[in-house]
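[Meeting: bench + compute handoff]

Bench side (C.D.) handed over the final construct sequence. Compute side (W.E.) agreed to return the predicted structure before the next meeting so the bench team could plan truncations. Sequence as handed over:
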Amino acid sequence: MTIQEIADLAGVSKFAVSRALAGKSGVSDQTREKILKMAGQLGYFKNNEPKRFAGELQDHNGIHWSGTIVVLFPNIRYQNRESLYWGPVFDGISTRLNQKGLDILTLTEPSSDHVFSVLKPEAIRGIVTIGTISTQILLDIGELNIPVVMVDHMDPVFQCDTVFTDNFYCMKDMMIKLVSKGYRKFQFVGNIRDAQSFYERWLAYKATLEEHDIELNQNPLLIGPEANDMYKLIPQVPLDALPEVFVCANDSNAVFLIDELRKRGLNVPDACVVTGFDNVNETYPIMATVNVNKELLGMRAVDQMLWRIVNRDSAFERKLIYGDIIVRDDYAGQPPA
């Protein structure tokens, strides 16, 4: 692996790659994150590859647990305890840790210096991360040689156990229900680079349209960074090309979209149908969503952490938890012609 190969993939100079990999100044935080991720995709961080397993798997049930589990929960955008999505995930983690008799140390504003001053490997049994985590922080954690389980996030620079909602098949099943109702004109809404979950939902959306011979006429603005500023984005969407269904990456996007459509004089669901994901809002006319068992995500992350502690050399695992498809026919509007 050469610096030039990483530079070519990331679209930056060799100087920037060299500075980023060395942890030195001279590149912006955004560029550093991009370089680190590209390096991870090319296999630069080989020390985090799964170990080869040669032994008997151990059962963690029946063990009397003690010690501390660190919960890394960075306060990024809407990612906090007050969130209707992330709050219950954290509650599930803390509930399971209490059941197992383990102490919990929560870090909400982690930085490299802070992590190394607080996380003493001999005192910490494991780390559970919630949501998006900085690539640099993950690299710093990797040096501690502590078991890590990530909830709803993954990064090519750091391999570990992960717990996700089954985003692909939940979205696929919801899309099939929409297609079965006769809808044929769709637009996906949400920055698909914002999170791995959003990207998987986008892939399922595309796959369903392809399987049913429905043409993909996606407006690129609706799936790019512009989707983070809905109030600026929606006025750019031509009214004469309004789809039958806006399929949003999550319920929050659906709420913002409905508000902006109303400002343009478009009533939902009369003008069009809007769907979401996560089931965190029942007051807006969101026709379909996926009820994610958020507490279960957190609880299963702890279960995986305990299993990993006693099976350190086994290959890393990705656990998927299915959600319930909810279709609210009261918000279906007029049936497609």
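W.E. noted at the follow-up: The mean pLDDT is 88. C.D. will use this when planning the next construct.
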